[in-house]
Amino acid sequence: MDPENKPQGPSPHYSLYQREVFKRGGETGVLPSFSVHPEELQESTKKKLNDRGYFYANSNAGLGWTDRANRESFYRWRIVPRACVDTNTRDLTTTIFGHKIPVPIMFAPIGINKLYSPLGELVPARVAGELGMPYCLSTASSQPIEDVARANDEGASVKNESNSIHQYDGPNGGDAKSPRFFQLYMGHDDEITLSLLNRAWKSGFDVVMLTTDTWQLGWRPTDINIANYVFYYQGAVGNEVGASDPAFMEKHGEELKKDSGKWIDHSVWHGKAHTWDKVKWVVNEWKKISAGRPFVLKGIQSAADAQLALEAGCEGIVVTNHAGRQVDGAVGSLDVLPEIVAAVGDKMTIIFDSGIRTGADVFKALALGAHAVMVGRLYVWGMAHEGVHGCRHVIRSLLADLDITMTVAGYRSIREDVWRNKEALRFSASGVPPGPGEHAKL
């Protein structure tokens, strides 16, 4: 951990963030203001948010068995450490949709971020920009598309000594440009859909990600208990994308003044499923708008649907069960990842989502064939504690965790040593992980 004895390699030494925390505590007595242990972090978030904010981020479908299945899947895959490997430099970089990115981790689309911090989506967008990581904006954002794009650009332009250990420089000098994703909830008014896509493209979002598993919200009892649907409350947040959209406001502006749920009910969680024919339509429209930039389908849990997404013209998919928030009793996303990779992994970019909590989780998803992973609840918990600083602290901790995991496990390069390397893992069919809070008893 001696920073003077760290050879320069393809990636920054993200691991030095651990040393930074230790040194600050040892020399000045200043400790982190909250724990980044995932279970402790989730628990402390309860004290930072009111019930509406906390449960909106953490409610699961039904009994929460799908959420638990996600974590059990990670538990059953175990890393095989290798000895005496030169990991003095690491290469955590990868390429996604033509962009070289510093780490195979991106910010997942999460709506209504103003529930967690007054600046809402401006917080994670800025942190993603600072770290050179891909950011994905939700249609259910509580900030307009254009404002989030500016925050992401401002983060990318930050250059000072304090972030020098984690800022990534592109291969030709200067900051690498990570792809900016726009997650689309597609309503049944094509004019509004096209308006959203055009706004996203003009704001520098060059990949579209259509969510297919949330035409309407799943049954979430912990939200039912407190009528937790913020869009219907006076002074509601979450309408900002619609309220700033010219096509929507021309048609429904007056209605929105009377019914704060008009945007969300009409264009986001409208309750009317689309078909593969409609997917093909929106893929073609995005291609015309963006001059052929990639289109990604989010919500894939079977090899058959992955193949249909390929046939519909999608360049990528997100293997996800919406973090267990939509279908209770469903398969864990990591359980189905290998069969999906076998079906389309040589033809599509595969992004993994659902249940990522640690650097080891990232490692396992990549070893099973994902090109990159998405992180959601972790950054929300961080921003709920301390806004930009809290979000940055959690993500830098995750990067340090991944970097250290590769160092001590004996794997130097993501692309050469980890990705699609099933020899790096062993599967154990027995055992389940400790339940929430039980780690403290072990």
From TrEMBL:
The active site is at H322. GO terms for molecular function: FMN binding; oxidoreductase activity. Its cofactor is FMN. FMN binds at P109, I110, G111, S138, Q183, T211, K298, D353, S354, G355, I356, R357, G376, R377. Residues 30-427 form the FMN hydroxy acid dehydrogenase domain. Gene3D superfamilies: Aldolase class I. The keyword Zinc does not apply. Glyoxylate binds at Y56, Y185, R220, H322, R325. Keywords: Flavoprotein, FMN, Oxidoreductase. Pfam families: FMN_dh (PF01070). InterPro entries: Aldolase_TIM, Alpha-hydoxy_acid_DH_FMN, FMN-dep_DH, FMN_HAD. Belongs to the FMN-dependent alpha-hydroxy acid dehydrogenase family. This is FMN hydroxy acid dehydrogenase domain-containing protein.
